[in-house]
C-alpha cells in the first residue's frame, strides 16, 4: 500500500509557495479536536511542559498551550506563516539569527513562551532546541516526503526527553486514489519507525471524510491519533 506514494517528493520551496499564495487548506483556525480530547494523556499531570511542534505553520494550538502555562518551540520553513502566527494572535515578537543554522531565524514572542524557528526541519536538533516533554505532530509526518520518514523519526526520537509524550496524528486512505500530501501513513509504519525505542498506543480513530476529501477522489479517510512514549530503560 505504500508503493503508490513511495517516490512522491515536494520541494521545500513548494510549501513556501503555498503560503505565499494562501493555498493553506491544511491550516485549521480552531484548536484541533484530537489534541483537545487527548490533552490530559499528554500532560499526564505535568505543568509547564515544553512542547515541540514540527512543521508548525501558524497553528492556533500553540497559543492555546502557551495560554495554559506551557512553553512551545516550533519549526517552520515559511517565514510568512511564522509572522502571521504572531500577527494574527496580536503578539509582539523579536527576530534573531540562529548561529548554528546559516540563514535560519528564530522568532520569539514577547508575552508568551513561544519560539518559532524558520528553517529546514532537518537542520534543527536537540543541540539547538533542547529536548521536549511533549510533541504534537499534526500535518508533519503526513506532509514530509515518504522517503524521508526514517530520517524524520530519528530526529523526533532525538528530541524526546525521557518523559516525553508524543501525540501523532496520521491518516489512512487508499493511496491509489490520491497522490498526497497529506500522505497515507499506516499503523504498521508508525510501529516500524518508532516501535524499537518507544511504546505506541492508539488513542483514537475517527472517520474524518469530508466533502473536501471526496473532492480529492477519496472514498474513506480515517484519522488516527497515537501516543508514543520512550521505553523505560
Give a quick rundown of the structure.
It contains 8 helices and 9 strands. It has helices spanning 12-20, 33-43, 61-67, 79-88, 126-129, 149-158, 187-194, 211-215; strands at 50-54, 71-76, 93-97, 105-109, 114-118, 132-137, 160-172, 198-207, 222-230. The longest helix is centred in the first third of the chain and has 11 residues, at 33-43.
Report on the structure:
With 233 residues, this protein is of the alpha/beta class. The chain has one domain (12-230): Rossmann fold (3-Layer(aba) Sandwich), CATH 3.40.50.150. Helices cover 27% and strands 27% of the residues. The protein contains eight helices and nine strands. A nine-stranded mixed sheet has the order 3-4-5-2-1-6-7-9-8, with helices on both faces.
Could you outline the blueprint of secondary structure elements for this entry?
Layout: H1 12-20, H2 33-43, E1 50-54, H3 61-67, E2 71-76, H4 79-88, E3 93-97, E4 105-109, E5 114-118, H5 126-129, E6 132-137, H6 149-158, E7 160-172, H7 187-194, E8 198-207, H8 211-215, E9 222-230
Parallel strand pairs: 1-2, 1-6, 2-5, 6-7
Antiparallel strand pairs: 3-4, 4-5, 7-9, 8-9
- Shape, please? globular
Question: By helix and strand content, what is the structural category?
Answer: alpha/beta
* Strands in their spatial order, largest beta sheet: 3-4-5-2-1-6-7-9-8
Please count the beta strands (DSSP E, at least 2 residues each).
Answer: 9
CATH homologous superfamily grouping: Vaccinia Virus protein VP39
Helix amount? 25-40%
Domain module tally: 1
Under CATH, the topology can be stated as Rossmann fold
Through-space gap between termini: 34 Å
Mean pLDDT reading: 96
Tell me the fraction of residues in β-strands, as a range: 25-35%
Q: For the record, what CATH class applies?
A: Alpha Beta
Family: Belongs to the class I-like SAM-binding methyltransferase superfamily. TPMT family.
EC number: 2.1.1.67
Organism: Sparus aurata (Gilthead sea bream)
Protein name: thiopurine S-methyltransferase
Amino acid at each position: 500500500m505504500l508503493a503508490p506514494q513511495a517516490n512522491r517528493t515536494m520541494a521545500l520551496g513548494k510549501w513556501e509557495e503555498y503560503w505565499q499564495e494562501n493555498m493553506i487548506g491544511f491550516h485549521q483556525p480552531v484548536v484541533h479536536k484530537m489534541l483537545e480530547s487527548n490533552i490530559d494523556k499528554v500532560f499526564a499531570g505535568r505543568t509547564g511542559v515544553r512542547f515541540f511542534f514540527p512543521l508548525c505553520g501558524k497553528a492556533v494550538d500553540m497559543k492555546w498551550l502557551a495560554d495554559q502555562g506551557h512553553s512551545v518551540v516550533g519549526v517552520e520553513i515559511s517565514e510568512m506563516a511564522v509572522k502571521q502566527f504572531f500577527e494574527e494572535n496580536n503578539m509582539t515578537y523579536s527576530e534573531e539569527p540562529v548561529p548554528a543554522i546559516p540563514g535560519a531565524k528564530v522568532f520569539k514572542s514577547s508575552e508568551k513562551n513561544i519560539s518559532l524557528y524558520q528553517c529546514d526541519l532537518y537542520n534543527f536538533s536537540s543541540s539547538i532546541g533542547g529536548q521536549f516533554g511533549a510533541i504534537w505532530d499534526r500535518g508533519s509526518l503526513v506532509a514530509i516526503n515518504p522517503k524521508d520518514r526514517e530520517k524524520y523519526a530519528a530526529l523526533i526520537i532525538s528530541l524526546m526527553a525521557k518523559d516525553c509524550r508524543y501525540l501523532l496524528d496520521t491518516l489512512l486512505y487508499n493511496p491509489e486514489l490520491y497522490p498526497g500530501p497529506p500522505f497515507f501513513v499506516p499503523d504498521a509504519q508508525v510501529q516500524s519507525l518508532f516501535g524499537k525505542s518507544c511504546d505506541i498506543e492508539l488513542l483514537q480513530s475517527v472517520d474524518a471524510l469530508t466533502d473536501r476529501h471526496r473532492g480529492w477522489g477519496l472514498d474513506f479517510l480515517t484519522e488516527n491519533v497515537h501516543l508514543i512514549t520512550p521505553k523505560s530503560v
